[in-house]
Design brief:
Helix 1 runs antiparallel to helix 2, helix 2 (25-42) runs parallel beside helix 5 (84-105) and helix 3 packs antiparallel against helix 5. The chain has helices at 3-21, 25-42, 45-65, 73-78, 84-105, 112-115. It has one domain. The chain is an all-alpha fold.
């Protein structure tokens, strides 16, 4: 396994926790995104699940304690959008499912564009 990439994934986890604890939701969000990218490169479905769960927790905390925050579900809906943390849960779940499917089939799935000639 790529030790540098593992270190980046773990640094993303740490940055997320520090940002969340400081109430810096944008930094926390981007740290989770970076962590997810590293997890995808490592084909680490457990880290994808971690990102998914932390994104849900952030969304729920903001919705309960800061419903007027720009990243709350209510604020996002008022602009006709899903919240960023909700979007991240979907992205992380999709990444996890993609990794699980690749492992089950024993090979990476070819992009759709590669099948067109």
């Amino acid at each position: 396994m790529d030790q540098a990439l593992i270190a980046l994934r773990d640094a993303g986890f740490k940055l997320f926790a520090d940002a969340r604890d400081a109430g810096q939701w944008e930094v926390a969000y981007h740290a989770l995104c970076a962590t997810l990218h590293a997890a995808e490169s490592l084909e680490d479905e457990h880290a994808c699940t971690f990102v998914e769960m932390r994104a849900k927790e952030c969304r729920d905390w903001i919705d309960l304690h800061a419903p007027e925050h720009k990243h709350s579900t209510r604020s996002a809906q008022s602009r006709g959008h899903e919240g960023i943390f909700r979007q991240l849960t979907i992205t992380a779940e999709s990444a996890r499912l993609r990794i699980e499917l690749q492992k089950r089939h024993g090979r990476p799935m070819a992009p759709l564009a590669a099948t067109k000639s």
